[in-house]
Design goal:
The complex is a heterodimer of chains A (142) and B (62). With 142 residues, chain A is mainly alpha-helical. Chain A has one domain. In chain A, 81% of the residues lie in helices and 0% in strands. In chain A, helix 2 runs parallel beside helix 4 and helix 3 crosses helix 4. The radius of gyration of chain A is 19 Å and the shape is elongated. Chain B is built from 5 helices and 2 strands, in the order E-H-H-H-H-H-E. Chain B has a single domain, classed as lambda repressor-like DNA-binding domains (434 Repressor (Amino-terminal Domain), Orthogonal Bundle), CATH 1.10.260.40. The longest helix of chain B has 11 residues. Helix content of chain B is 63%, strand content 6%. With 62 residues, chain B is mainly alpha-helical. Classes of the chains: A mainly alpha (142), B mainly alpha (62). At the A-B interface, helix 3 of A face helix 2 and helix 3 of B.
């Protein structure tokens, strides 16, 4: 029996499996970006020394590079204009949220003093927010 | 923007997947177009118009 979109039940099941697989892959990538940020945070505690800071900077740089590669691969693999529109929306939304967050943290630092979050984390934070935004936007259009 | 994509597709007896294949886009794109959540680019609108043998303004209306 075909559904409204003319798909058989078998096709619908296959599509659900593909969606779940894609979702799992995206969650895996998202965790892959979050993990380096957490590791970097632990590697550079206050008074951790120059070596710990270097390790943190390296991990953050790798995280940003991975996020950028992920975005580029997704963009170039997709020749579909709608997919690209979703990517662009996610980038714009993530940029806006990251800037807003950084501004709020900056204001909090002005009011309460002391560095709350290291500025170096803004780039990986953007990567994480981008992935969350991309997943949310994709689901909003379904 | 309103459109008659779903109606015209039903007339042709095409599934969303088939139309997506013919228009060289994803099925998600067709779904978004039909639900009115996404407006197509001009090249895609021309492609769809050609597939249905209609003018763009016969399919899409502001």
């Amino acid at each position: 029996m075909d559904n409204l979109e003319g798909e058989s039940a078998a096709h619908a099941r296959a599509r659900t499996v593909r969606r779940l697989r894609r979702f799992a892959i995206e969650v895996f990538f998202a965790l892959g970006f979050v993990a380096p940020v957490i590791i970097a945070g632990r590697a550079a505690p206050d008074g951790g020394g120059a070596l710990a800071l270097s390790v943190a900077a390296l991990i953050v740089a790798v995280s940003v590079l991975a996020a950028w590669c992920y975005f580029c691969v997704r963009w170039h693999l997709s020749h579909d204009e709608f997919e690209r529109a979703l990517e662009a929306q996610a980038i714009a939304l993530a940029g806006a949220i990251t800037i807003l967050g950084a501004t709020c943290i900056g204001l909090a630092e002005l009011l309460f003093g002391g560095p709350i979050v290291r500025i170096v984390f803004i780039a990986p934070a953007f990567s994480v927010v981008y992935l969350i935004a991309r997943l949310a936007i994709s689901r909003a259009y379904r | 923007m309103n459109n008659r994509l779903r109606e015209l597709r039903a007339e042709k007896g095409w599934s969303q997947a088939r139309l997506a294949e013919l228009a060289h886009v994803s099925r998600q794109t067709i779904q978004a177009l039909e639900s009115g959540k996404y407006d197509p680019s001009l090249p895609l609108a021309f492609t769809l118009a050609k597939l249905f043998g209609r003018r763009i303004e016969d399919i899409f209306e502001p």
